Amino acid sequence: MKRWPGALVLLLLVLLPTVGVVWGAAADPPDLARDPRHRVLVAIPQHPGALINVTAADMPASPDVLALGRRSTLALEQCAANNADPSLRGGLRGAARRAR
Predict the structure, then answer these.
(1) What is the mean pLDDT of residues 34-42?
(2) What angle do CA 80, 73, 83 make, to 5 degrees?
(3) 3-state secondary structure of 41
(4) Fewest C-beta atoms under 10 Å: which of 6, 75, 81, 99?
(5) pLDDT tier for residue 32 given thresholds of 50, 70 and 90
């Protein structure tokens, strides 16, 4: 019986950092409106030219673009034809074919 208070205090001391991390993560959600990749990803279905002036650093991840399916096809085709970065143009030609 005398071990219960000590065990309870030890358990609280062990769990306190975990509670602090979870509390901090819940209080500070990521701000997607400031993320350039998120802004480009949201613009792809509405604006076929959304990927024309995008750099490789601002390009959304392939799974995110491909998850849009046919809604991303026009933007991928425009990027493959008109983007100034040759590595993006070449890589997106295959992605546009897979999205169809």
Answers:
(1) 81
(2) 20
(3) helix
(4) 6
(5) low
